[in-house]
Amino acid sequence: xxxxxxxxxxxxxxxxxxxxxxxxxxxxxxxxxxxxxxxxxxxxxxxxxxxxxxxxxxxxxxxxxxxxxxxxxxxxxxxxxxxxxxxxxxxxxxxxxxxxxxxxxxxxxxxxxxxxxxxxxxxxxxxxxxxxxxxxxxxxxxxxxxxxxxxxxxxxxxxxxxxxxxxxxxxxxxxxxxxxxxxxxxxxxxxxxxxxxxxxxxxxxxxxxxxxxxxxxxxxxxxxxxxxxxxxxxxxxxxxxxxxxxxxxxxxxxxxxxxxxxxxxxxxxxxxxxxxxxxxxxxxxxxxxxxxxxxxxxxxxxxxxxxxxxxxxxxxxxxxxxxxxxxxxxxxxxxxxxxxxxxxxxxxxxxxxxxxxxxxxxxxx
Length: 365
Prior knowledge:
Helix content is 19%, strand content 28%.
């Protein structure tokens, strides 16, 4: 495996948030996925030759090499967007489920007119406007969040399936789902429920495409990172070092680590599918020396990959086109090289690539 490192003494401009801003025509923000996921365009970026080419995701079996390893994030998006009304006033209420504790108390972000009070109830409505059950506001938390307790029987996942909506980002139809999003905003390999946003690079892969890749000799490893709402938030601080990075829970089992280690030992490349997979792998490799085998890991990570950074766990990345001033854009420029990735984004705009969650993809290798 080739150790990838950004400059030890990066240009000071690379540490300023404004450096990662760019103008994006609104019409390039994809509002729906393509009818066939694998038909998305794929920009291929070769860092060794500093060249950019154009293909499609369906071409991956010809682009990747036998012995390469793709690392998939198998998190499952939960229907975390909540809609209801304050029972006493019938004032509209919206929420976003964040997590639940072992006692069945939920942590949710809330938005409503007026000032909500501890002890009041919210009547929850399902995707069709049918009233289902109530949430009791238990206590206010920082950042607009509340502890709430549902008054219905069932697991958290079962209750969310009753009332939840797909938590689309605001740039897709103002966050308003249609029925197709229930399938479209979920990877075909989703397994462990817990994400409130999709690992969007994985949305391009179909079961048939994965099978074709395996048939050509590509290895598949899996990790889990429950994507949180902080992933897509822009960096508001002037300097990257002042940004308060969000926490997300992730894990890699020893089976996945072994597949990656065997790939590296045989001279194959480790290609992360999505920035979320990168965060798990690079977190698991913290403290490693170059060439050290990867070990199983689980826990919270708030890893912010920015210049200077030495990548120890990956050789490449398949990812979507990201928001300006986002931590994701900082990561991919750190990996691909600032000049080359700036050129790639300029080409993407000129060639009218589709951006963000339902958009096209790039392969940096």
